[in-house]
Amino acid sequence: MRRATRWLVCVLVGLGGDRVRELPDPEPVWDELLVAVDGCDGLASGPRCLVLGPGSLRLWLEGERSAAALTVSFDDVPLPADRVKVDVDADGVLVEISAPHAEGTLVLVQEGRRRFVLELVPQRAGYLAARSELELRRETTPVAAVRRELIERSADLEETDAHQLALYDTELAFEAGDWKTIVEAPWRLDETSPADADIAALDRAHVQAAYVAIHVVPDYAQAIAHLEAARAHPLDLGARVNADYLAGVLQQRLGRPAEALEWFHRAARLARRVHLDPVLGAVVAQQAVALAELGRFEEVGALVRDAESRLDAGDALGADILGNLIWAQMLVREDEPSLPDPSPTLRRLVAHHERIGEASRVAGVRLNLAIAASQSEDLGEAARVLETVDRAQLPARDQIFVELVAARVAAAAEQPNVARGHLDRARLLAELGSDEALALRTRLARAELELHSGAVAAARAELEAAEAIEARLAQSIAPAAGRSLFSNARRRGRARHVELLLAQGDREAALCTVLGARARHLRGLAAGADRTGDDDERLALLLRYEQGRAALAQLSESSWELPADELAQLRARADRELEQLDALLSQAVARAEQAPPPWHCRDVRKSRSGQGLLTMHPAAEQAGWWFLLDRDGSIEAQHVPIDESQPDDPEAVAQRALAELDASGHLHELRTLTVVPLGAMVSVDFHALEPLENEDGPRVTYALGLGTRRPPSRDRSVVVIVGAAGNLREPRAEAEQVRAAMVGAGWSSLDAWTPGQEHQPALLHYAGHGHHAGLTGWGSDLELASGVLTSQHVIAHQRAPSVVVLGACEAGMSDARVIDGGMNMASAFLLAGAQLVIAPKSTVADDDARALAGALYRAVPAPGDSRALATALTEALAVTQRSEGRYTDWRAWVP
């Protein structure tokens, strides 16, 4: 709340004449300025900064947007500019101060109404003396004896000094392996804290206890409680960063890489902002691991390359960080075996840890060296290194990898039963730790072993179990966080499954496995047929989002009047608030996925005569692709090898597949063909390839593989939307043209549309700007006059017109890097309930979009049947494309 400074004037009227007397000005009433502090040797209530001598302090004002009215003084004297450095960004204000003395009062005042006061006082002499003597004793005396002496000395100290010394004992307990004290002592010391206790030391004890509860003696409930206790002191900046970091590690241990990544992002952003480099290095390493577990391999590579250029493996911290980064790289290599072998770096790390006597780290890096050798198929080296690993030094998760490497070694030695024993142990350990990601790896490894051994039925069972785990894991990852990339990283195991099914002659199961590669991860986002049971919490999230966007739009209306510096600050604020609003949308999408509808392969397959379905998947055993054509209840499987002269040309592969299917008569007399493209094939224009491009060829549509069977809409209304004003000339004319054609055919025209309205028209036609952006397309949007409409916004509402035409650049663009094609605006409308979306996959010329709109609506059916309208528009698109090549990039998409 804003408060004006109060001044009191008292007027007194005396008996001897009129006299006015001004009383002294009272102290102003200050609002609290929220600040987090780093750089103190200790922190006490007050707040007081406990210091050993003059030094540098970092004060973090989160959420502050300006430092223009910020003043800094020390003992009532303004600090000169060379002692104060102020840096502002979208997250807040960082003030770095060089205090002139070790004692005094530091005051920050913002806008003359908010204040932060920090007393700088020397660390307590009694505690310092006792700790210094104990540190000297620690160099020559066993830690147990030092701890006993600490207890004896505490009896002679004042309460606060004894309390600080007890907190120091939690550090000694780590060296002694006294995990019980580490986990339990912070609670006792928290409850018995004297008024001037060292908050920072207490927070460090809670953070250390959380570390032990995560890594050493797993007790995740204790870890959560300790992290919450550390965050209870917002004054301590270091505790906050470390608590966020460990919260991410905990989410990793719980098998939630997407949630872990969010915590790491928060910790890294703040650590980078306030120059906490040691913490930042550790966070970045764990970010890389989380990204690897999500299948976001390109980002992992970028982090590893950057770190390797900065870190010194001979430095203790650098070695730890580099070790974690190499582990992330090895996780990637499990799915991408062609990546470089990290063994040389790992050998240097082993030597470093052996030199300084870190047994647990030596064991961990040696295990990584054994894994790297097994990934390179050097199983003899893997076996030799594995024998040197001290398993007693490894945490539970690493024990699973020991068994996996041992299984690979045994399999190479033609000892399948021994290998099965190791894999059984690995699976049981993973299930015991509720680690589904590692359970997935054990299933895939067992399938490989059974395939090699000729046990086809056992291999199939393992691959089916792996598919189920992969589907659950993918569903647990927020779509915008990289679900598509996670699924893509597991394509090799799926390819093995498909080829095994084909080898067994079970083509139907192979087809459904391929279709499920895309549809299983999308089904939770697909609107069901019944929208009467809307989730109140999801609708509340969407309402907050709409209100926030409206407030931002109103804020920007008068922004043109602001000076440049204030405009930059407003932009930073808008970016931050947009990020928060996007988080609301992500929560709404997650709510929509809470009860995903079942997916049935039979709903996708084409059962009527003259209808066909074509899909494909990369091959596993041989370079190339498997194409599967489903027609009239019969499935044809065709393997098409990669042409070595055109290794990166998916169109050439698709053309050869169609030519072979046509030559064998499988495409003859097809009236319709639905293509469910995967991976690199999402970029191929199948409708423009022979024989599909011929006039007598089938009408081609593209599909997500969901196969939803919603009844046709009987609605008789349409809505035509013109995008935000920009550099386009034709959208308004295009809109009038479409509206006139539909109204002329008897349809009624609506004046407005929003994605959340209960009544959805039969047709939505959009003319304007569109973008394909974000991770695998999850930042895609359309520019409406009322603001940006994002893919998540459309999906979150779970409502859409039956037929949608998007005259917008990139509205149907897919990401060829991922097996499921990622997201775009066309897919968003399909997932929200549309039964047909016509959209381009690339940029389109303004006049071409208008001309195509004219062609699409030349023969509009009578109102009241959305299915007839969809058929008419699809036919019109096909005819126009075959007569004019400039419309090749447009596609008709169905669920």
State the low-pLDDT regions, or none. 1-21
| Beta-strand content estimate | 5-15%
Our Rg estimate from Cα atoms comes to 33 Å
Largest sheet: 11 strands, mixed
Number of strands: 27
Molecular shape: flat
Helix content: 40-55%
Q: How do the strands line up in the largest sheet?
A: 16-15-14-17-18-27-26-25-21-19-20
Give the end-to-end Cα distance, rounded to a whole number of Å. 51 Å
Number of helices: 29
What labels would you give this structure?
895 residues, alpha/beta, 11-stranded mixed β-sheet, flat, disordered N terminus
Structural account:
The structure is a single chain. The chain contains 29 helices and 27 strands. By secondary structure, the protein is an alpha/beta fold. Helix 14 (379-387) packs across helix 15 (396-412) and helix 18 packs antiparallel against helix 20.
List the helices and strands and how they pair.
Blueprint: E1 13-14, E2 17-18, E3 31-32, E4 36-38, E5 42-44, E6 48-51, E7 56-62, E8 70-74, E9 77-78, E10 84-89, E11 92-98, E12 104-110, E13 114-122, H1 125-140, H2 143-154, H3 159-176, H4 179-191, H5 199-215, H6 220-231, H7 237-253, H8 257-273, H9 277-293, H10 297-310, H11 316-335, H12 343-355, H13 359-375, H14 379-387, H15 396-412, H16 416-432, H17 436-453, H18 456-476, H19 483-489, H20 491-503, H21 507-522, H22 536-557, H23 564-592, E14 611-618, E15 624-631, E16 634-641, H24 650-663, E17 672-676, E18 699-703, E19 717-722, H25 731-744, E20 748-750, E21 763-767, E22 770-771, E23 781-784, E24 787-790, H26 791-797, E25 803-807, H27 825-832, E26 836-840, H28 846-856, H29 866-883, E27 890-894
Helix pairs in contact: 1-2, 1-3, 2-3, 3-4, 3-5, 4-5, 5-6, 5-7, 6-7, 7-8, 7-9, 8-9, 9-10, 9-11, 10-11, 11-12, 11-13, 12-13, 13-14, 13-15, 14-15, 15-16, 15-17, 16-17, 17-18, 18-19, 18-20, 20-21, 22-23, 23-26, 25-28, 26-27
